[in-house]
TrEMBL record:
Keywords: Transferase
Coiled-coil regions listed: none
Classification via InterPro entries: PTrfase/Anion_transptr, PTS_EIIA_type-2_dom, PTS_Nitro_regul, PTS_SugarTrans_NitroReg
GO molecular function: protein kinase activator activity; protein-N(PI)-phosphohistidine-sugar phosphotransferase activity
UniProt EC number: 2.7.1.69
Record-annotated PTS EIIA type-2 domain positions: 5-148
Alphabetized SUPFAM superfamilies for the sequence: Phoshotransferase/anion transport protein
Family annotation (Pfam families): PTS_EIIA_2 (PF00359)
Enzyme class: transferase
Gene (UniProt): ptsN
The protein's name: PTS system, nitrogen regulatory IIA component
Amino acid sequence: MEIKDILSPDCTSCAVQGTSKKRILETISLLAAEKINDIDQTTILNSLVSREKMGSTGIGNGIALPHGRLSGLKDVVAILLTSAPSISFDAIDNCPVDIFFAIFVPEDKAAGHLQTLATIASKLSDKEILKRIRGAESDAQLYEAIIT
């Protein structure tokens, strides 16, 4: 799997003004609802919030991988956004987060999403990619930073 298989340019947003974990999750769910026509924003947000209640998806180094399962979803959908400034996200290293890579998986194909998360985490462990992501000044630059 390549990132461009699940992330499209219209699902990236650079320098979002997030003030809280809840606000970032709302922004992610709004972007996802625009991409996923058959599932409303509230359902998408609830899937993220439910997952966060089990434990933060903040993996450290300013990165979070929020994710949720959605009934009725046909294909994996990803959302990438950066926030300015970084926000408190209860990450494992207790540092604020400024890179959010969210994925939504079909409820009946949830078993495969762990490999998808591992692929994304591996890509986000590359210091050069992180530098490009954090240096992006537009949605298009953000998209290019992650897929190259």
